[in-house]
Specification:
The protein has 216 residues and is α/β, with parallel strands linked by helices. It has a domain at 2-86 and 112-123 and 145-158 and 172-202: P-loop containing nucleotide triphosphate hydrolases (Rossmann fold, 3-Layer(aba) Sandwich), CATH 3.40.50. Helix content is 42%, strand content 13%. The chain is built from ten helices and five strands. It has helices spanning 2-13, 35-41, 45-48, 63-76, 86-98, 102-109, 129-140, 157-161, 164-174, 199-202, and strands spanning 52-56, 81-85, 114-120, 145-150, 178-182. Strands 2-3-4-1-5 form a five-stranded parallel β-sheet. Helix 5 crosses helix 7. The termini are far apart. It comes from Novosphingobium colocasiae. This is AAA+ ATPase domain-containing protein. InterPro entries: AAA+_ATPase (IPR003593), DNAC/IstB-like (IPR028350), IstB (IPR047661), IstB_ATP-bd (IPR002611), P-loop_NTPase (IPR027417).
């Protein structure tokens, strides 16, 4: 009973929007996804190695579900976890910068063993947001694990963040010790109404997971 209360309290502190599990993920709907690879991540070794897990794919393919489920596994293992969409994260960092508490905010966000940043690419990044996110990523680099979900390929991150130079610096750190999972499938949420959706949307034709060109 006491252990259950501890886990519930830790889940609230992690700010998870919902509680998801890997058992609740329909792997049969996304045959492109290697189930064993996801289950291996649930062993949480990537947290001990301070790696970054990238979950890339079109909307509705289960990226946030998997990220949340891995976060739940980490909480149950006694790890400190913090979950936040990118737009909310940048809003918090910008507020801290205006109030002169940015250093303290970044220090708080580096305490978690696992930081999950959801929905990269869904909303435009506000001016200055890319630099703020870079400061956080740089503070966690090789010190704390992260899970990032995005509907945009790495080649598009210059557009996503509105600054190709900062995007390149971000990727330089985020891909150094990384696990990249690409989900190439249809939206699970749209499955019951697939006939009403244009084929290029169903197949996520707009998604392009091309890696960035790296210069020696």
């Amino acid at each position: 009973m006491r252990e259950n209360r501890r886990i519930k309290a830790a889940l609230r502190m992690a700010r998870l929007p919902v509680v998801k599990t890997l058992a609740g993920y329909d792997f049969s709907f996304q045959p492109s996804l290697d189930r064993n690879r996801i289950l291996a991540l649930a062993g949480l070794d990537f947290i001990e190695r301070a790696e970054v897990v990238h979950l890339l794919g079109p909307p509705g393919t289960g990226k946030s579900h998997i990220a949340t489920a891995l976060a739940v596994e980490a909480v149950r293992a006694g790890k400190a976890v913090y979950f936040i969409p990118l737009a909310d994260l940048i809003t918090q960092l910008a507020k801290a910068e205006r109030e002169g508490t940015l250093r303290e905010k970044i220090r708080f966000l580096t305490r978690a063993s696992l930081l999950v940043v959801d929905e990269i690419g869904y909303l435009p990044v506000t001016p200055g947001g890319a630099n703020l996110f870079f400061q956080l990523v740089n503070a966690r680099y090789e010190k704390g694990a992260m899970i990032l979900t995005s509907n945009r390929g790495f080649a598009e991150w210059g557009e996503v963040f509105g600054d190709p130079v900062v995007a390149t610096a971000l990727l330089d750190r985020l891909l150094h010790h990384a696990v990249v999972i690409q989900i190439e499938g249809s939206s699970y949420r749209m499955r019951e109404h697939a006939a009403l959706v244009p084929e290029n949307v169903r197949n996520g034709a707009a998604f392009n997971p091309r890696p960035p060109k790296r210069r020696g």
